[in-house]
Amino acid sequence: MFGAFYRDYLSEFIETLQRLNVDILERIMNELESARQNGAQVFVIGNGGSAASASHWACDFGKGINVGESKRLRIFSPIDNVALGTALSNDITYDEVFTEQLKNYLNPGDLIIGLSVSGNSENVVRAFLYGKQHGAKTISITGSARGRMTELADIPLVVESGNYGIVEDIHMFIAHVISQYMRRLSAGAAAPQSTI
Known about the structure:
Radius of gyration: 17 Å
Structural class: alpha/beta
Helix content: 55-70%
CATH architecture: 3-Layer(aba) Sandwich
Number of domains: 1
Oligomer: single chain
Distance between the termini: 34 Å
CATH superfamily: Glucose-6-phosphate isomerase like protein, domain 1
Mean pLDDT: 95
Low-confidence stretches: none
Number of strands: 5
CATH topology: Rossmann fold
């Protein structure tokens, strides 16, 4: 029985990957590369499994794209400051946990990337609203429910699945494919031609 479930999950994962909009993925990569070249900050936010993915994004793009003395990307995952996050959640409200941190750090031209399955995480929605009011660009990567994040994002990418595991798997697939491509750029290697 597990074998059948595994094959069904794998099949849905592959089918969902194949439906990803590569043009939008390239736009996301270009925004990240532009932020790197221009010294803009990038904030990656999410809740639950998406919070763990946000932290992983900050690691891969903060370290993994670098080669030698290549230009660095100023990327942060606000969820990583547990003391500050719990203080804000306890003393103000969890709905403002990201917005309150953006008030400390956000500059016009910075980039906010929101990861979510539902697209309706209130604290991410509020962070997007704050960011847009203060000159930031926003990118959402959500599941098929889309939600308010998709409506608010300058660049919305929809992972066409309602399975939270598939969506979160693809959050990390996207991080890895873009960060490894950007590492090639760091190394000065010629960008490979797409075969998709």
